[in-house]
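Consortium newsletter contribution from the modelling node. Members have asked for a concrete example of what our holo predictions look like. Here is one, prepared for the protoporphyrin IX containing FE complex that several groups have been discussing at recent meetings.
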Amino acid sequence: MLVSGLGAVRNVVFWVLCLGVALVSWRFLVAGVDLTMPTVAYHASLRPIAFYAHVGLAPIALALVPFQLWRGLRDRHRPVHRLLGRLYAAAVLLSGLGGLWLALTTTSGPVASSGFALLALLWLATTAIGIQSAMSGDLARHRVWMIRSIALTLAAVTLRIYLPLSMLTGMDFDTAYAAIAWVCWVPNLLVAEYLVARRPSLSAAQ
Ligand code: HEM
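And here is the predicted structure:
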């Protein structure tokens, strides 16, 4: 009883975080980039295509995560899962290429730049392998690579948890930001590897 109660709370928190961060990311649609994202507004004027592809489409990938993990939807409505999967892949492809360009041109220094760039490359690669596996009918391999892709998508959530926490500790912003460009995704990927290794049906598919 207690365990299933905790599971339900965990699910609600997960949905709220994914949908909440996605919705808040679209704040620039309401009040513009200069007002709502002042620290990255220079990207919008220097490289608008990369910037808007990223901040406009990455939230779609994040918002789709809880739907794609929802077993009831996956099992009972396969065509919906496939359609949302294609939408997820397209959002990752375009926003990932945009994110890669933002990473390579950020003024936040080489540590942040390399952390975000590697995240973008791994995001694109894991998603491509996951989708290719589904298209070739290897569903076990598809699951493994989509767990990795989703762990990287969730970097958007962990980053937005760690940033305010780092401010609470009084850490210098530039140092914290550079560290968080790595810390927002490396532990996520380790958790994904743990989840894969813990389930024999998944680890056999690697
Ligand atoms: C997983 C791969 C991702 C990479 C490599 C990436 C990379 C970046 C980079 C480099 C910037 C500019 C930061 C700067 O120059 O200081 C940025 C900003 C931004 N990204 Fe991503 N990002 C990723 C995922 C996401 C996701 C899934 C979302 C969805 C919510 C997202 C939403 C945003 C938003 C809204 C901004 C504007 C700044 C902000 O509000 O914090 N990103 N991203």
